[in-house]
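Two proteins were folded this term; both appear here.
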Amino acid sequence: MKPKLSAVLLFLLALDFPGANLVSGQSFCSFIETVSRYQDSVRLDCREGKCRIDSATFSLDVYLSFFDKLGLPEGKRCDCIYVDRSADGFPILFLERRNFKNPGPGRDIHSLMKPRRRARENITPEDSLEGYLQYLFFYVMGEQFALYWHANYLDKHVVCSEEGVGALLAFLRDNDLFVCSSTDMQMIENVDPTPVLWMNGRSCTITWIEVETHHGVFRRSYEVSRNHPFAVELKTEIQIAAIDTMFLY
């Protein structure tokens, strides 16, 4: 039997970072899968050529409650706006003054997308492995819901369990619109999806499996600084499998 890839990765990391706090465990996967399921349950309400998030399927308060190891700047709150354009649609999580009254439609979307307004650029993680995991997930995956039309080219999610790998393989086997070679399917099957986290005095590094549904499967390692502004840097990327699409939006 071939060793699972993350087991080999753990061994190599232990050699490279002998003084680091190194953890590999499914306890972190529970958080990832819980948030991902909630994201997948969000639906759009499209009427007369306009789309918005169906409030019956999404509550911002409920969504943010999953990220209980993250904090916002004093006097600020997180808000969500749905960007509905002719060719795509997607949500933006941004910061607003706590006592600011939402003026409704017609907001300057470009200003909300600037780093000083984007929620992911201004949150603070708890100084713990769980805190940095939540922080990275919010930073990379926090707006991965209610994507519309061309925005689906950016669709991605984290696979962190054997069940998740099985679901991905079943999706690819039974789908004529997304194509993956038999060799790459075997590569996916051999991957151990368990997230790997290690922390030293300077940063926390997190390695997990990302699926870009229209492009491929990747093992990516991110380094998160433990000091403000908690910069995120993609350190390594290994493509495990390619996914081709048999359609255009």
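Next, the second protein.
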Amino acid sequence: MLRNLAQPILLVFAALGLTGCVESASPVTQATPMEAMVKVGDQSQFTAMLQTLLDQPPGAFIVIEHPETQKFVQFAGSRTEGLLLDLPTHTLTTDETERARRLLQPRGATELQLGDDGKDQPSTFQLQFNRDAQAAAQLCRDIFQDIYQYPPDRLLRVSITID
């Protein structure tokens, strides 16, 4: 898990501002974004990209999104912290949020409230994968197929940002 809520909130803000480059995600350092288009069903490509995070210093992350709907999932990762899935609920419909709970909670995900009062505040689902890029990639595929209900041939934009 991330050490505190500040980092997942920064990931959420970085994803919200994402239209091609996320240099604004870090006010101190210049981020290096890399992008690719990958099909929902191409688990091997997701695995390779997530494996890339495991070779990076802390602060690297991947945002995987459908460019037209801006539905996304993100992973933070590094060689010292492993992989952490982060799925914010602010872009999910009520039905997608319920599907997310059914898919993620049995696998050990935690739903964290991002606001102070808890009621009607956005939340985020988080799940630690340690160094298991293959399991993270499989769940990523399941999120797009089961929660967002996209077909396997739907193209997604993958943005990797390395500080």
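Residues 1-29 have pLDDT under 50 and may be disordered. Strands lie at 32-39, 60-65, 72-78, 82-88, 110-113, 123-130, 155-162. These notes refer to the second protein only.
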